[in-house]
Design a protein that fits this description.
Number of helices: 9
Order of helices and strands: HEHEEHEEHHEHEHEEHEH
CATH class of the largest domain: Alpha Beta
CATH superfamily of the largest domain: von Willebrand factor, type A domain
Strand content: 15-25%
Shape: elongated
Number of strands: 10
Helix content: 25-40%
Distance between the termini: 26 Å
Structural class: alpha/beta
CATH architecture of the largest domain: 3-Layer(aba) Sandwich
Strand order of the largest sheet: 5-4-3-6-7-10
């Protein structure tokens, strides 16, 4: 099983990578809280001997001589929306690292999509920076899952072609838009570093909007703890570049380390407190950790909760 991004030779086949990451911990996100039938037809599945014949598609039987049951949207065990921040700051990686935060998020998302596909759950994907750049409905099908893998693959491939100043994040605005667009109770997974041009209270309000809509929200706070939170750099002059605005500042990290740590830890503390207030799950997705460390504790928790 693939443990870390460094274990991956490349990201040219994200579906293959996702399958290897999830190998060995197909734990399950949930039990089945949303079983039932609605009027919204989704796809067919083979009829299981002994179950009700009420939803057998007799027309399809006449054509194929096989029994198929109509599967409806609400028969899926879970409806999951995966939201990934693709703004410029998500392209950050520390010196010596192989992949960046956006790539880490994409691989984690691909692993979750693979799990959901295996469990026959509906999954959707939304990509956003200043605005929503990609969005789709939650569906259950192999074709749909492959489309999501392809979209993530394309996002990884095209990230280097975008200049820094072109994709300044506006997370708060996008979260409000997404909250208004998801009409059925769903599980919402957010992958973001939460670096935003808006003030932090606006970001917190966007998160709260999702919870107000009764969705079950999990925030994966994507970061490189050593450099982005602890500010661990060598004692020498550096030139730091703001990946959102392109602005630069020259300084010696040692002189500002305590001040930086105080500000960063303060933000994380307030974020965790707000997640607690809104009854949201907070997961520190440190990109230096293994996928197992990030995903397995969460999957185990979800299997108990649902």
């Amino acid at each position: 099983m693939i443990e870390r991004l460094t274990d991956i030779a490349d990201l040219n086949n994200l579906e293959f990578v996702a399958a290897h990451i999830t190998e060995g911990f197909m734990t399950g996100l949930h039990k089945s809280p949303f079983h039932g039938f609605s009027a919204e037809f989704n796809e067919h599945r083979l009829y299981n001997k002994g179950e009700s014949t009420r939803h057998i598609d007799w027309k399809l039987y006449a054509r194929t001589d096989k029994l198929f049951v109509k599967r409806y949207e609400e028969e899926t065990n879970l409806r999951c929306y995966i939201l990934i921040d693709t703004s410029s700051s998500m392209r950050y990686k520390a010196a010596g690292e192989k992949f960046n935060k956006l790539e880490f998020s994409s691989v984690c998302a691909a692993a979750i999509i693979n799990l959901l596909r295996t469990q026959r759950d509906a999954v959707a994907l939304t990509l956003f920076d200043r605005d929503i750049s990609f969005s789709c409905d939650a569906k259950v099908s192999t074709v749909h899952a492959k489309m999501l893998f392809s979209t993530l693959q394309k996002t990884i491939a095209e990230q280097s072609s975008t200049t820094n100043a072109e994709s300044t994040g506006s997370i708060a605005k996008c979260l409000h838009t997404i909250a208004e667009s998801i009409h059925k109770r769903s599980l919402v997974l957010i992958f973001s570093d939460l670096f935003d041009t808006a003030d932090e209270e606006s970001v917190f309000a966007g998160l709260q909007h999702l919870r107000h809509a009764k969705h079950d929200v999990v925030l994966f706070h994507v970061l490189d703890r050593a450099t982005e939170l602890d500010f661990n750099f060598e004692n020498r002059p550096y030139k730091f570049v703001d990946m959102e605005s392109g602005k630069t500042v020259a300084l010696n990290p040692l002189e500002y380390k305590e001040t930086y740590r105080s500000l960063s830890s303060g933000f994380c503390t307030r974020l965790k407190q707000h997640c607690g207030m809104y009854n949201m799950d907070y997961v520190e997705a440190n990109i230096s950790k293994s996928f197992k460390e990030i995903l397995v504790p969460y999957l185990l928790k979800r299997s108990v909760m649902h």
